[in-house]
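Two proteins were folded this term; both appear here.
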Amino acid sequence: MSREELDKIRQDAAGWHIASESDSMDWDGFTAWLEADSRHAAAYDEISLTDGAVLELAADPAHRAFTETPAVVQAPGRVRRFRWVGAGAGAAMAASLAALLIVPQLRTAPGQVYATSDAAREIVLADGSTIALAPHSRLEVSGADQQQMVLAGGALFDIRHDPRRQLAINAGGLTISDIGTRFDVQSEGTNLRVAVAQGKVAVSGDALDKPVPLDAGKALTFDGKAGVSQVASVDAKAVGAWRDGRLTYDNVALPLVAADLGRYAGTRVTVSDAVRDRRFSGTLTVGNGDEAIRDLAQLLGLRLSGRPGDWRLE
């Protein structure tokens, strides 16, 4: 990406950040801008952090170099006017530019790692958002506003709406971006499934041609080995049903189903290469993992080998 492109993205991010404080903010336009390019979210986070640092500088009498007249700033493409006074204006501007470079490093909180074994765990973020971390899963949370996450396993996210914070979850080699909604993520290696119960998220990454928006009642499955993604409808009420002991699928790749059984039913399931491309639609009850895997094999007409607790689908 050229310097000119980077500068343009940063200018737009600054415009959206300041416009978000206005009652006339174009939220649909803002969401579309975020979804257009994964770099937009990163730039918006950078501007948000920088803004906080500049406000701290402005609050210090030793660094004040502005008038009390508020700046007039609108969304990208419109006029943005600043009025500087006093001999210290250049120093304040330099401080702002320095903040843009160093704030992301200074204000990023140390990562907090959560991990589960046989039981799920509820995580409460500082803003009241909650995450139900599935059994046998790991979640790392970092960033000044807890907006950066890395997930291995499964989790149900219930995120409070805050346009000033762009949540980014890395899982299965892709990134799920969100400003506030309810959605479920299941990942296993480079396989990923994202299902939305409320609101809207966007899934992006180098393996996708462009960001994929997902509204409530939609789900994306991604097979990293084959490089194939698919979007389908789901029952919004069934999103996160693993907490009630049910696993519901609509045309989901068999490796993801097998990974879920291992995570939620405590039953290890391997899938032979000959059937890894098979897909499953239906609901499995995971109270008894061995029964669940037998049901799966029967429904798909597959041969089941192994022993209780450790099975192979062929």
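Next, the second protein.
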Amino acid sequence: MKKILFLVFVILSTIYLLPHVAASPSAVIQNDSNFLDEAGYYHVVGEVKNTGDVWLQYVRVAATFKDQAGTVVDTSFTYTLLDRLPSGIASGFDLFEFDVGKSANIRSYALALEFQEAQPLTTALEIMNTSSSKNSLGWLQIVGEVKNNGDTISEYTKVVATFYGADGKVVDVGFTYTDPTTVQPHGQQGFKVTLISTTRSNTATTWSLDTQSTQYASIPELTMPLIALAAALTLGGFTMPKKRRRRSEDE
């Protein structure tokens, strides 16, 4: 017992002596790609990853579109599908040109980011019981349930899907809400996300799902920091949280 107490004392002392670094918001755009949809509109899809140590909100992605000669064709902007972005988590976006004529002239784009620091949400939502299929139009559909592990109601419960191609690039994104959008404490509600494009559905090979509501965020994928993990193991009985994984179209 004395050895355990001594070890805990050493760990806590180490944490106390570590330099305290101020929180730093930062984010990067990754896995972006572009395509013309069936109606002729130009899209840039991708994801923003929170690379800082604080939560983010109002994550805005702006684009400058240029033609073959490097002349600006147009500008546009959008926001990530998750309203708040936890540290270490990525959220998809879909940024597109509203003019078909201008879309046909776009040959390159440049992206820029803006965001604000946000207060964390309680992590209590869990996606479960998922499956996928294609409907009669060839559109990929993912169905499942969101479980509310919290003690209060989850309102406007949103489910976000990011679809990836074989090269790991984002090929499209989508979102929906549970039906109904309110999930009772320790209850669960179903959802269906549909990728409304035969071409995009055929291109998608894997995907990831996330959920967020007014009150709650998803149970995080990331495990606790190493020092905290060591302390928990020392005190006994720690179980590693299960990571969410990308789903494959073959499942």
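The domain at 27-118 is CATH 2.60.40.3230 (Immunoglobulin-like). Residues 2-17 form the longest helix (16 residues). These notes refer to the second protein only.
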